[in-house]
Design brief:
two-stranded parallel ribbon; mainly beta; single chain
Length: 445
């Protein structure tokens, strides 16, 4: 490839070392700046991450009001006792420090709410964590340990993330987290949704994206307590009927898969509020999808859909509709009945016009119609009184009416890559640009 520079392995290593050295230097300069601060007792957040320190800086002793402390990616072998005096601390990040157990000072941070232990060699969550009644979230991502992770009984923790741990099985001891509500198992080696999930009766959200999940091996009947299910990038090529039996679902994410068809039984998910089918191979939506009257967000970006049914008017709670990067030649007139719609994305399709009735969308704040085949400015836009963000770039629009400047809430307008230089009324176009600029509206042309 022209202009490409081929580096030897030695040169690449040297470049990597130089970059690492640069970031360490920046981190140390930040610490020097913090140490020079004469009012350390006013600091709320302190980061000494990535400085490759071997000892915790003494100045932290004076930071009595901090609520967030980042000690990640250093070389600490011990932690001074004064850290236990940081009683206002709510978030503590100890990731990437090669520690094998939770430091003792942590158990004295009585107001701690969130603890990040990722990238260490910890394999046991000790029972002393029960001394922290406000601790709700623990991150254990990318642990450098081949030993099994062990959980002790805990009645406070509600959120646990154990991403990127090469897990094939879920630790049996996780059932000891009695009030666990959210579990993130993304980026592991699961081939199915672990049966042990059924024992976590308080679990509401399961994120298991970026695993090669074989849905035909999942016992969905035992998962009906789940309300939010995330299966993005799981190499899924179909949606089994059993999945649509999870009638308590309010959020279903199946993005970045290979799904070609959505079953009619999707209509069983009457409580669904968010449906994400982003980047699949779907060519049409079943009519039953328009019976899901609680939907507030639909994302079908990057599919092969050529038609949206007039029945979309049934979704009167819809606030955000992502239809971009499909094969749409038109939008149904009934879309004008979505009185709560706030954001509409139809860019990168094959549209030549918008329905005249679409101007009735009085709550619409964001409209993206860029990268289509519009030759005329859609007049209905002038009735969208609450519009804030409008993108109609990369079309074939020559004349844009001056009345567009009368939309009082408009803050962003993108009209570049249209043949506006061929406008029949150049004076009006220039006046529009000047008026927007005077109002403080950002316009790209």
């Amino acid at each position: 490839m022209k202009g490409r520079i081929n580096l030897t392995q030695k040169q690449m290593d040297s470049l990597r070392d130089a970059r690492k050295e640069f970031y360490v230097k920046i981190a140390k300069l930040k610490i020097i700046d913090l140490e020079a601060n004469t009012r350390k007792d006013t600091l709320k957040s302190v980061s000494i991450s990535g400085a490759h320190l071997t000892e915790v800086p003494e100045f932290l002793k004076e930071c009595t009001q901090i609520t967030s402390l980042f000690l990640s990616n250093n070389y600490f072998t011990s932690y001074p006792s004064f850290l236990s005096e940081l009683k206002s601390l709510k978030y503590l990040n100890l990731s990437g420090n090669n520690i094998t157990e939770i430091p003792g000072f942590v158990f004295e941070l009585e107001n701690l709410e969130k603890l990040n232990l990722s990238g260490n060699q910890i394999r046991k969550l000790s029972k002393e964590l029960n001394q922290l009644p406000h601790l709700k979230e623990i991150s254990l991502n990318g642990l450098d340990s081949q030993k099994k992770l062990k959980f002790k009984r805990n009645k406070y923790v509600e959120i646990v993330s154990i991403k990127s741990n090469n897990l094939k099985k879920l630790p049996w001891s996780i059932r000891k987290l009695e009030n666990l509500e959210l579990l993130d198992l993304s980026k592991n080696d699961f081939t199915t949704i672990p049966n042990k999930i059924s024992r976590l009766r308080n679990l509401k959200t399961l994120e298991i994206s970026e695993n090669c999940i074989l849905l035909d091996q999942v016992k969905f009947a035992k998962l009906n307590h789940i309300e939010k299910l995330q299966l993005n990038k799981c190499d899924i090529n179909f949606i089994p009927e059993e999945l649509t039996g999870l009638t308590n679902l309010i959020s279903l994410q199946l993005a970045h898969n290979k799904i070609e068809e959505v079953p009619e039984s999707i209509g069983n998910l009457k409580n669904l509020e968010l449906l994400m089918l982003y980047k699949n191979l779907i060519t049409e939506l079943p009519e039953s999808i328009y019976t899901l009257e609680n939907l507030h967000t639909i994302d079908i970006y990057y599919n092969k859909i050529s038609k949206i049914s007039e029945s979309i008017s049934n979704l009167n709670k819809l606030r955000i509709l992502y239809l971009s990067f499909n094969d749409l030649h038109s939008i149904p007139e009934s879309i004008a009945e979505l009185e709560n719609l706030e954001e509409l994305y139809v860019h990168h399709n094959k549209l030549t016009e918008l329905p005249a009735q679409i101007g009735r969308l009085k709550k619409l704040k964001v409209l993206y119609i860029n990268n289509n085949y519009f030759a005329d400015f859609p007049q209905a836009i002038l009735s969208m009184e609450r519009l804030i963000d409008l993108d109609m770039s990369s079309n074939d629009i020559r004349d844009i009416p001056l009345e567009l400047t009368e939309l009082a809430d408009l803050k962003l307008v993108f009209i570049q890559k249209n043949p506006t230089n061929e406008s029949s009324n150049e004076d009006s176009f220039q006046q529009m640009i000047e008026t927007f600029q005077q109002k403080g509206t950002r316009i790209n042309y």
